[in-house]
Write a structure and sequence with these properties.
- The structure is a single chain.
- About 75% of the residues lie in helices and about 0% in strands.
- By secondary structure, it is mostly helical.
């Protein structure tokens, strides 16, 4: 996975869950696994101390309710916190990819506009 994309996903997770800064190295082959474990430990606390707040976060992140229920009801091979971490990371990576695509489209449009302006000057 692209390192920049993973960093953007981490930033989205950090912002969306309103977490205090963490020093997670996001380089190397196991970066996503480190992110997954860190997020799972954070979610474990949220599950036990603020489930309602966690459910609100999942709703804001647009995590499918059915998938969240399966994860929370321990109906996956992973414990609930890890299953939720996977869902959140997957969603935030999708968001990061979409934002990157739109940034690229905007940059291309600006380049095209600049080229069109140069043509008009001739």
């Amino acid at each position: 996975m692209e390192q920049q994309l993973l960093k953007e996903a981490y930033q989205l997770i950090h912002d969306d869950l309103e977490l205090s800064p963490a020093n997670i190295p996001l380089e190397g082959e196991d970066a996503i696994e480190r992110l997954r474990k860190w997020l799972a430990s954070t979610l474990e606390v949220m599950i036990t101390q603020n489930l309602e707040g966690l459910l609100q976060v999942l709703y804001r992140l647009d995590i499918a309710e059915e998938k969240a229920q399966v994860a929370l009801c321990n109906m996956t091979a992973d414990p609930p916190a890890l299953a939720l971490a996977d869902l959140i990371i997957e969603r935030e990576i999708q968001k990061a990819k979409s934002r990157a695509w739109y940034r690229d489209q905007l940059a291309q449009k600006k380049v095209q506009q600049s080229d069109d302006d140069e043509i008009e000057k001739w």
